[in-house]
Amino acid sequence: MRLRIILAGAMLTLGGCEAGNDNRKADARGPATTASVAASSDAPADCSKLPEFVPLYADAQVETCVSGPAGEPRRESGTVVYTTAAEPGAVIAWYKDKAIGDGLVPALSTPTLFSARDGSKRSVMAMVETVRGSTKVTLNWGRDT
What we know:
Layout: H1 2-19, H2 26-29, E1 61-69, E2 75-84, H3 88-101, E3 105-110, E4 113-118, E5 122-131, E6 134-144
Antiparallel strand pairs: 1-2, 2-6, 3-4, 4-5, 5-6
């Protein structure tokens, strides 16, 4: 879990570096509100505003779906966490195929992580782990608006 948090932070940090850093304090850039967050564990998360280059696996059981401004002008990012019955390797292979099909260029690939980008315009990273017999998927994405 610690590795997942570190990798997620690194991805968001790197995405910010490519788009430029205006060195303003976070409060000077404006509020970072979420477009959608599950209100409770019983309420389904609303992922209806995901970009088309961030698909969900067919049997995805969404736990968390958040998105909003990325702290830079004309940039937004988000995170989706879900579980699936598919094997981790199958999920990574599927995201790799989808990203390449959408014109993104692979950046990093391991048995449990895949990332791709379109310069600084769009980026996606999928991380997988086995949790209680299911595959937990964490997707991080960013795009220019």
